[in-house]
Design goal:
The chain is of the alpha/beta class and 247 residues long. Helices cover 48% and strands 12% of the residues. The protein contains 10 helices and 8 strands. The chain has an 8-stranded parallel β-sheet.
Length: 247
C-alpha cells in the first residue's frame, strides 16, 4: 500500500493537474474533503486571516504547527502546508522547523524565496542552501514545493523574467526540491517554457481572471492551487448573508 507521501507525489501529473482548493482549519478541510478533493493544502494567507494575524509569517510557529496537526488528524487525505519561509533565514534553523512540520503528519510544504519582512528575494545561492538543508532534515519523500516569487515582484512578465524563473527552478531541482511553484505565472506559452526547461512538476495559482485550467493543463501544469481566494469568497458571502439578516 502506497504511503501518503507517495500518494501525494503521484497526484502531480503534467497535463492532469491536481487541484488544491486551499483550506485554513479543520472545518474548511472537512468541507473540501466532502467536495471530492484528492489532497488538501493550507494557505498561509487564509490561516492568518481566519485567526486575526496579517500574512507574512505573523502566525506564531507553534500555532501553525498545531493547526497543521489538527487538520492532519481530522482527515484521511494527504495534507501539505504553506510554511512560507520556514520561520528562519538560517538554513539549519529553517530545516529544523520543517522537520517539526513533518512530525505533525504533513506530507509536504511550500517554501518560498522572498525575504519575509524585508525586500526582494533571497540570492539564489542562499536559497539553494536553504532547500538543501530542508531536504537533509526531512528525507527523500517529503514533498518540498519550492516557490519563487519573481512574478509577484514585478508587473513586467517578459521573456527575461521567465528566464530568471527557469534559472531558479533548475537550481531548486538540483538542491532537492520536489516541485516548483510560481505564483502569478499564467500565460500558457510561458508555462510551456518553464515545464520544458525545469525538471520539476509545475504548480501555478488560480486567481480571478486567470486562464481556464484546461489551458494550463494543456500547457503541462501539474498542480493548481487557489491561495487566499476561497477564504476571501467565503467571507464575502458571510458578510452579505449577515447584512441581509441584520438589515
Amino acid at each position: 500500500m502506497a504511503s501518503k507521501f507517495e500518494t501525494f507525489a503521484a497526484l502531480h501529473v503534467p497535463g492532469n493537474p491536481v487541484i488544491l482548493y486551499n483550506i485554513w482549519d479543520v472545518g474548511s478541510a472537512l468541507a473540501v474533503v466532502a467536495a471530492g478533493a484528492k489532497a488538501l493544502a493550507t494557505g498561509s494567507h487564509p490561516v492568518a486571516d481566519a485567526n486575526g494575524w496579517p500574512d507574512g509569517q505573523k502566525v506564531p510557529i507553534d500555532f501553525a504547527l498545531a493547526n497543521a496537526r489538527r487538520i492532519v488528524e481530522a482527515v484521511e487525505l494527504p495534507v501539505t502546508v504553506d510554511f512560507e519561509g520556514a520561520y528562519s533565514d538560517d538554513p539549519e534553523i529553517g530545516a529544523a522547523n520543517v522537520g517539526e512540520l513533518k512530525a505533525t503528519g504533513a506530507v509536504g510544504c511550500n517554501f518560498e524565496d522572498q525575504v519575509i519582512g524585508g525586500e526582494g528575494l533571497h540570492p539564489l545561492e542562499v536559497q539553494v542552501k536553504r532547500i538543501a538543508a530542508i531536504r537533509r532534515a526531512v528525507g527523500d519523500q517529503f514533498y518540498l514545493n519550492a516557490r519563487t516569487d519573481l512574478f509577484l515582484k514585478t508587473q513586467t512578465y517578459d521573456d527575461a523574467l521567465v528566464g530568471q524563473v527557469v534559472e531558479r527552478g533548475k537550481a531548486f531541482a538540483d538542491a532537492g526540491a520536489s516541485g516548483f511553484f510560481v505564483p502569478r505565472l499564467a500565460d500558457p506559452a510561458q508555462i510551456e517554457r518553464v515545464v520544458r526547461e525545469v525538471p520539476l512538476p509545475l504548480n501555478v495559482i488560480a486567481f480571478p481572471g486567470a486562464p481556464d485550467k484546461k489551458l494550463w493543463a494543456d500547457a503541462g501544469v501539474a498542480r493548481i492551487s487557489h491561495g487566499p481566494f476561497p477564504h476571501r469568497a467565503l467571507m464575502k458571502t458571510l458578510t452579505e448573508m449577515a447584512h441581509e439578516a441584520i438589515s
